[in-house]
Amino acid sequence: MKPRAIVMGSGTSNGVPSLGRTYPPEFLADPRNHRTRCSLMLQGPTGNVLVDCSPEMRLQVLRTGVTEIEAVIISHTHADHVMGMDDLRSFSLATGEAVPVYTSPQYQEDIRRLFPYAFAEFPPDIFVPKLDLRDLPERLDLAGLDIEVLWVRHGPWDVAAVRTGGFAYVTDVSEIPPKAWERLRGLDTLVLDAVRHRPHPNHFHLDRAIEVAQALAPRTTYFTHLCDEYDHGPAEMKLPKGIRLAYDGLTIPI
Description:
Blueprint: E1 4-9, H1 25-29, E2 39-44, E3 47-51, H2 57-64, E4 71-73, H3 79-82, H4 89-95, E5 99-103, H5 105-114, E6 131-135, E7 139-142, E8 145-154, E9 157-164, E10 167-170, H6 178-183, E11 189-193, H7 206-216, E12 220-224, H8 232-238, E13 243-245, E14 251-253
Parallel strand pairs: 3-4, 4-5, 5-6, 10-11, 11-12, 12-13
Antiparallel strand pairs: 1-2, 1-14, 2-3, 7-8, 8-9, 9-10
């Protein structure tokens, strides 16, 4: 298989459609406007790497047909990025091994607090996820891919972005520090946070995301972490050349 990235989920923390709201039939008729919470699958020549475990992770992975995961990268531990981690139990049960999970030490502490049973001992017939927490280095050799880790800011939080080849994924970002900025220039494809139309203290909004995309100058940019202010058909007609909206299931060659 040629390396590729799959946008598993393209929605903001509420998901789209969001609970407690009504939507025009025309909006709901476009399947691209149905967005699960953000995550990404990197598929290399020798395996699969999951970036974040959204609350819909089980459904997202089933949709791709993936049955094996070599490792997981957790960008940060906000609920919409980790609350599917319990479903990693299926992979640890299949292999009999703990699933390698790469993230920063501070986020490892959060995971231990959220899922303490994943690190406890149980009788053989009690099935829980087994997680092997590992520090996230600057480079990872996983699934036959050279994955570079770049740290960006999401309000007061550090968030891991990833680059492999000419592809990069930058979710939940309000500031890109100079070191990461230089590694994000001139890509083939950039997937970038653009949470909503109006400014947000912890995310790029539409106008800022466009500015950043045009400054970094990838061939193609896909905006992700999208709230329900975005309607795929009308929105894409107004975006600058080379900028599009991501959607669940979007597959991008690496």
